[in-house]
Specification:
Layout: E1 6-10, H1 15-26, E2 30-35, H2 38-50, E3 54-59, H3 65-79, E4 84-87, H4 104-129, E5 136-140, H5 147-150, H6 166-183, E6 190-194, H7 212-223, E7 234-236, E8 239-240
Parallel strand pairs: 1-2, 1-4, 2-3, 4-5, 5-6, 6-7
Antiparallel strand pairs: 7-8
Helix pairs in contact: 1-7, 3-4, 4-6
């Protein structure tokens, strides 16, 4: 059993997920690099280890029940518990996503990864999280999932392009976060959503103005919350984001 706190980050082979893993590793955590691409996952693990991080690879496809179950067994076998789960894996689904043009299969595919995948992974790892003295769950969302922002008429509100698959998937994810917080109240498990901001990654063709390191900061903070911290909330670097 690991004496260090243990985290698992999904979609951690690149971009924001990799930087979340690196940031937690830099704080002395053992970090599971969850990713479905074998080559990229092991390259990320090697890079993290070269930087002094206690990293280990976790083959993980969040859309596959068997893969998720095997991942939970691997973490239990190698580390014996889990202290923080960061549900970072996500997809945009491609364009067009105007409601009148989007392919319903695109919506299903995005929700399967961005929402159902989070449910699947979280439920599989809850037994391990319950072994922790300070268990934390972080769902990487986006401000485009805020209904408050999406319905605002202010020119200053950044709501992104019209996206009937991606944006609602993050709204759905935020709603799931709230329901988990209600169910897990009083257990010591803190669960929150976070927005990394408009980060330059391959998810958006590297058009973002923030670095992956900057995008990882909110998730790292929520993954390492002190006991008694917030739960069932939505945050970015500047504070709480309205639902």
């Amino acid at each position: 059993m690991s004496e260090k706190p243990v985290a698992l980050v999904t979609g951690a082979n690149k971009g924001i997920g990799y930087e979340i893993a690196a940031g937690l590793g830099g704080l002395g955590w053992a970090v599971g690099v969850g990713a479905r691409d074998d080559v990229r996952r092991e390259e990320a693990v090697a890079k993290l280890r070269a930087a002094g991080v206690d990293a280990f690879g976790v083959p993980l496809d969040v859309t596959d029940e068997g893969s998720v179950a095997s991942a939970a067994e691997l973490v239990e076998r190698e580390r014996g518990r889990l202290d923080s789960l960061v549900n970072n894996a996500g997809i945009t689904g491609g364009m067009p996503q105007e409601p009148t043009l989007v392919d319903p299969d695109t919506v299903r595919t995005v929700v399967e990864t961005n929402v159902i995948g989070v449910l699947r992974v979280t439920n599989a790892f809850l037994p391990l999280l319950r072994r922790s003295g300070s268990p934390r769950i972080v769902n990487v969302s986006s401000s485009v999932g805020s209904l408050t922002y999406q319905s605002s008429t202010s020119a200053d509100t950044k709501v992104g392009p019209i996206a009937a698959a991606y944006s609602p998937s993050k709204t759905f994810l935020n709603a799931i976060t709230l329901q988990y917080a209600r169910e897990l109240a009083g257990t010591g498990i803190l669960i929150n959503s976070c927005c990394p901001g408009h980060v330059a990654t391959d998810l958006n063709g590297f058009r973002g103005h923030r670095t992956p390191e900057q995008g990882a900061a909110a998730a790292i903070r929520l993954a390492t919350l002190a006991d008694g911290g917030p739960t069932g909330k939505f945050f970015d670097d500047e504070g709480e984001v309205p639902w």
